[in-house]
Design a protein that fits this description.
2 copies of one chain form a homodimer.
Chain A: H1 5-11, H2 16-24, E1 31-32, E2 38-39, H3 42-56, H4 61-72, H5 77-119
Antiparallel strand pairs in A: 1-2
Helix pairs in contact in A: 1-2
Chain A binds a DNA duplex (30 and 30 nucleotides) through α2.
DNA sequence: GTATTGACTTCGAGTTACACGAAGCAAGTA
DNA sequence: TACTTGCTTCGTGTAACTCGAAGTCAATAC
């Protein structure tokens, strides 16, 4: 099973621009068909999945590239440990982000309810941000 | 109670650069002392809290500015409804982000455990991203 | 058989949201 | 008096896209 740029972008909920950008900077490997068009296979999809998760951790593309370079080096205890530490750090970052995102979602729930109260006429419109609660 | 740029940045876990940037683009209001230095008060802190949450929703600073402009306009049913809809949309975005961040954190947990298994010698090193599981 | 359409290509410039560093001023300390 | 600290402005740099122009190529429309 192979995919075009368009299909690949849809699979990962991103844009064709981004996919091309990743291939151009050699972050995402791809082959070409007779017409020089990019084609992606399952292996590329696995790379892309990894990229997506690491980007969601907030990891810069340059660092992801370095990590993938490590993954493709000959295996050694040192190399393995280095990769382990990278993943451990990114796991930490991911949990931090998740907690922050949860707090934001909770606050927005509160905020929306507040607006609904105002709209229902139960409380006055006090939405000027200078008056927002702590 | 008033705050300097440095204090304000620390309060919101950001950088002085960012605080100055926000004041420069008139997103965050601030006064000046006799020495022309920025000073922030509780009202500014409330603004900044709002900015922080809305940024965490993924809202662009330009849109946040527009929202704050609405907040400071004369009150009307139309205005109120417009603000309500903005907040509703951002609440949606926040929940989406939170779910995504949770999924990422879960995946990174799995990934780290996988590495720990490898380090413990229970399974071989199969970390080449081309072999990552679906 | 030509024309048009659609999907891809490259390449260079633009955008957002900061990040950084130089150079300057003002107050406090050695 | 010199130095340090902490701010100031201003202008450039950066990351990760994002967009648009211009070209290629194959398939369908007339």
């Amino acid at each position: 099973m192979t995919y075009t740029v368009k299909e690949f972008a849809q699979m990962f909920h991103t844009t064709e621009h981004t996919i091309r950008y990743y291939t151009d900077i050699n972050l995402l490997p791809c082959k070409r068909d007779e017409g020089n068009r990019r084609i992606f296979d399952e292996a590329a999809a696995n790379w892309m999945r990894g990229i997506t998760y690491l980007r969601n951790c907030g990891m810069p593309v340059k660092d992801i590239k370095k990590y993938f370079d490590l993954c493709q080096l000959e295996e050694s205890e040192e190399n393995l440990l280095a990769r382990y530490q990278i993943i451990a750090r990114q796991r930490e970052a991911a949990h931090k982000k998740a907690a922050e995102a949860k707090a934001t979602a909770d606050y927005m729930d509160f905020k929306l309810k507040h607006y609904e109260e105002i709209l229902a006429g139960h409380i006055p419109d006090d939405t000027n941000p200078a008056n927002w609660p702590d």
